[in-house]
Amino acid sequence: SLSPSSPPTALLACVLSFNVDQKNSKSFSGGSLEDLFGYTVQQFENSEGKWVLIGSPLLGQPAKRTGDVYKCPVDKEHNTCVKLELPKNTTVPNLHEVKENMAMGTTLVTNPSGGFLACGPQYGYMCGQQQYISGVCANVSSSFQVLNSIASVQECAKELDIVILLDGSNSIYPWPSITDFLERFIKTIDIGPKLSQVGIVSYGETVTHNVNLSQFDNTAALMDFVRQLPQQTGFKTMTFMGINTTRLEAFLPERGARQGVKKVMVIVTDGESHDFHALDEVIAACDRDGIERFGIAVLGDYNRQNKSKDEIQKFIKEIQSISSEPLKDHFFNSDEVALLTIVDTLGSRIFALEATSSKYTSSFEMEMSQTGFSAHTSKEGVLLGAVGAYDWNGTVVMHTSGGTIVPGKTQFYDPSVEAGYERLAGYLGYDVQSASTPDGVLYITGAPRYNHTGRVVVYHLNKTEVVVSQILKGEQIGSYFGSVLQTLDVDGDSFTDLLLVGAPMFMGPDKDEQGQVYVYRLKQNGQFEHQFTLKPVNQSCCTAHSRSCRIKNEPCGARFGTAIAAVSDLNLDNFTDVAIGAPLENDHRGAVYIYHGDKMTLKEKFVQRIAAGGDGSKMKFFGQSIHGVMDLNGDGITDVTIGGLGGVSQFWSRDVAELHANLTFDPTKINLQQAQCEHGGRRSTCVTANVCFSYSVKSKQWDPASSTEIRYDLTLDAVRTKARASFIEGDRKISRTFYIRQSRCRNETFVMEARPDFRDPLLVTLDFGLTEEDRGPILDESLPRSINRTILLVDCGSEEKCIADLSLAAKASETWMLIKSSNDKIDVDITVRNRKDNAYNTKVTLSFTPNINFINVETDIVCSLLEAKVECAVGYPFFGSMEEKSFKVKFEANPKYVEEFILINVTATSDSEELPSTLHDNSVQISIPVKYEAGINFAVWPVDKHVVVRVGEEYPSTINNTTIGEEITMTYTLEMTGATPTPAIDLNVTYPHLSPRGNNLLYLTHMGASPQVTCNTKPKEINWDVTVLSPLKETLSDFLLSCQNLQCASFSCSIPENTSSQVNVSFRLWKPTFIKGDFSSLFMRVNASLSVRNSQLFQLSSSQRTQFTIQVSKETLGGIPIWIIIISILIGILILALVIFILWKMGFFKRKSRDYSKE
């Protein structure tokens, strides 16, 4: 299919630099946008003159889109383009051609013989009722005459031997429906000795040969016969007897069967067979004989007898088992009356066999190949892309003087290796190229739809066999990687240097089709290696939702890479250049980018972008086609032809000139104490600027005796607001023009001010160019158009030699450092003095060890960090005589690097000379010893444990590690928290082990640690069978049992550097000791501490120790002691007596008397 992608326009705007001249271009017209006029272009030359060939593949639309190629004269005043009528003169004998939609001009390439090749990939032909789209190319001579037609298919493969097997039993009714079906079916077949042959066999209870294959030599005679064909009749349907008899007898040579011709059997039956048992054997025999079978189930009798759905399904299943695979192409069902409706479908399925040798009739080889979709000519032959070959997987056809090579279906891929890839409709052959190497020719073709991402296949031919040497893969789905290819011999040594691969539909970040072009370098081993990727200017898309756009076209983007053309040395530097089309740019108006060759590659930055003008209504997609290999106007420079849809523009290239400039001064330094000229009534310092130019033109047609006008501007102190000098005329800037042949110099004098500020050199800028820039040669874009020169202002007396004497003092703010983090700072105070002449470009350099980082500098001194040193500009342009400057440079610790010392070397230098005897005080070395605090969070959890024992509690005589006493567990954690590296550390743990009388206190039973942590003791395991001796009774009078007053045990663990770790420890309390011991409550402590192995560099923080406390309490066995009970009773009695006494005193126990006298 043709996908429009770019047009040119008559009005072309905006060219960015260089030598393709857009102002004086020539436009060609003749077709329209709808005809795709400009889809392809080629520059061409013959004895009649120079031409531009323009393809218009949809010319003749909408009715007949035959397409054509126009020839347009370049050297005529009028731009009249003439059609070549190639479709009319391009023909393939022995074919029933279909040219209505052939799209001639889709492909257009010149060939080494002086002619050109034009292709119409939609060219078709008829084989019976089937139309095939194979494509055709016209080989056209230099005089525009069609020499011959190149087609992948030269004639129809019409030879088929077809035998129709008819069920003639009594159940077939009405019989005329069958003969009508036969008549119409036979009408679709071209019958003849070298065409197809048809035989007819009828069966019922017996089998009858009605027509032999060779009996009729034309279609009409057989049609007359079948109109009178009688019904076989019979009460049985012996289907498999009929099939087997047809197989054995109807395809015999005696009955007209031809050797090597495809055998086809069409079985028409209306009921289940009476010999179903023979199905497997008969069908297997047909498969062995290569007979393609079409089964037609006539359901009329079943419908008339109102057979059940299951019975009908059983019959259909039998006929399906007779038919070849796939059933969708080989099985039909109908009643007698409706048979006519399947004739066309049956015919197309059978005639598809004429075009393919495949088992599946829906598979095509070259019949739908669209050969000529792309083309490439070389001295080896013609490569034609055939994207539709092999079910649109595609292939590449090669025509040589020795014949035509059509690679097989699987020669471009390995089915075993590439299983799982979506290769169907890969469109191999979308574009074709060749590459010349010292070892031979490589052929290159693109398959832009392969696996949806596209790929490029690089191969060579071993006689007629394809040998794939490399696969280049696309990276984005739908990018159409490989749809455009272009090889380049950049340096002109006849060997290919680069391969450019277009992916014009590559989606940009804004989901627009920006496109990009991949540049591959051809290495000496014949493999392509990706170098870089070219991309267009980002487009501001004008979408259907935009309100500010006048024209709104989708898709948005550029489609950069739709066309890629090698252009023969545009800028005359002897390197091949490249033009790349971006036809969707600027709302589908289009643009073209020019890239220059450079040695054996390309410059990544485009040197020119030619954008189409106009409103984009009649001409669109400028950059759809590009060609540039010829000098069309006779000036010795390659010209560029750019096509779009609706028009073509011819651009002339301008000659390239080289203009070199040089600027020198006399004197070379400005000594302000030497006034050598008179100006304005005073003695002044004067300088002569010598401006020299050399000029040449690259083309061979340049006359060195001719003169060219150039211009130049000289500016003094261009970057200063007020200049310190002026030319004799009185201004800081002068402009001159003069004529030059090959070289010329001029002198310009300027004068310094009376008291200039000479802190920086005097900058003189020279801008230059050609006076006439819009016509004639254009300056080489790789050369500068401006140069800057500086001249030093010195003030060193009459000797013009400055002898400086620098001295340096530097002191650090710290003499020793403990580094805890990167927040630790150190300052260096620096003082620089100059005791003699001005020291020009004075700087102080500080180099330092990596364990510190530069932060900044205080005061107005400017310092810059260069790798592991700091440069501070102390005096620019000079550090004055007897001047002194002090400043402070700030550093911070870099804990990632561990060093014993911080070393800082401070040096003062300048561009002025200094006597060796005074250099001793130009540098200072500062050395600061350092230590690093290891950032560790050390803790134990839990921090304590309380254990209760009872007086007189019994313990077994034989104990194990669970009955000896309660388990006490603790976990030590070491977490690295600081910014400094952590050294290797030892964890030391001590614990109370034996009492003063040698009784066990704590017993180590288990120890576990993080990986890489190693401990120097194994936990004790108590033997189950050991009888524990009765501990000695003793008084444990100390409230705190620690290692100061009893015997302790210890162990240690080694922890690697920079490792957060955990150590788990378990003890058992030796309960018998505490049961026998005399105490009420006591405490024991397990102490842990950390130590650093490398104590010279590291020290620990205050949290390097921790303690775990065990409290042991003792209770009386059997309850509360009796003395406590007695005391409690007595206290209760006393409290009761006190209450009674208080109540008595208050009269609680007195009874009131009754007064009877009042009664």
The coarse overall form would be flat
Structure summary, number of beta strands: 76
Helix fraction, binned, reads 10-25%
How far apart the termini lie comes to: 141 Å
The largest pleated sheet is described as: 7 strands, mixed
Spans of at least 5 consecutive residues whose pLDDT stays below 50 are 1-16, 354-362
Strand fraction equals: 35-45%
Q: In the CATH hierarchy, what is the architecture of the largest domain at level 2?
A: 7 Propeller
- Overall structural class, as computed from helix and strand content, comes to mainly beta
| Count of helical stretches | 13
Q: How large, in whole angstroms, is the Cα Rg?
A: 52 Å
Average per-residue pLDDT, rounded, comes to 85
Name of the CATH class of the largest domain? Mainly Beta
CATH fold title of the largest domain: Methylamine Dehydrogenase, Chain H
**What number of domains?**
5
Name of the CATH superfamily of the largest domain: Integrin alpha, N-terminal
